[in-house]
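Reviewers of the previous submission asked for a worked example of the structure-prediction workflow described in the proposal, so we include one complete record here. The input consisted solely of the amino acid sequence. No template or homolog information was supplied to the procedure at any stage.
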Amino acid sequence: MSIEAELLRTPLTTVPSTHQHALEPMQLRQVFGQFATGVTIITTGSESGEPVGMTASSFNTVSLEPPLILWCIGKNTGCFDAFNRCENFAIHVLSEDQEALSTLFAKRGVDRFAGVDYQTNSNGVPLLHEFCARLQCSVAARYDGGDHLIMVGRVENMHTQDRTPLIFHRGRYARIA
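From that input alone, the workflow returned the following structure tokens.
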């Protein structure tokens, strides 16, 4: 039997933690905040055709072949149902001068698209005109991720603009030095 086959047959075990206490959500959030991320706005169209969008820092690349990305949405997010039902969405990687736009799309109970320059693609997805990078995606898979849904998208179209990205670190916006 090959080493790979033997490893696949061997059950996974967990290494005992040296600290036997429950993880506090706020402390865990602070630890996660040590990882600097880019800032994105993710958009889709609702079933009624209304534009839907939200700010997210939980975005990552998955694969070059096929071209896949992933992002996560909280199940208690106001626009969860629209993203859970959509077949297409767009990821807009924000530039350092778009902090106000990021804040707008993170607010609840406001018209996030009022006064925002965008167009709608043939799939009904709002596309912002300003960005560092924009990826238009079709949904490839959805996975349960605890209190979040993991959305995997297949990149169908992409564009970049020569801009410096907006960064999020330790619970606040940051810039590349």
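The first helix runs from residue 3 to 9. We consider this example representative of the routine output the project will generate in years two and three.
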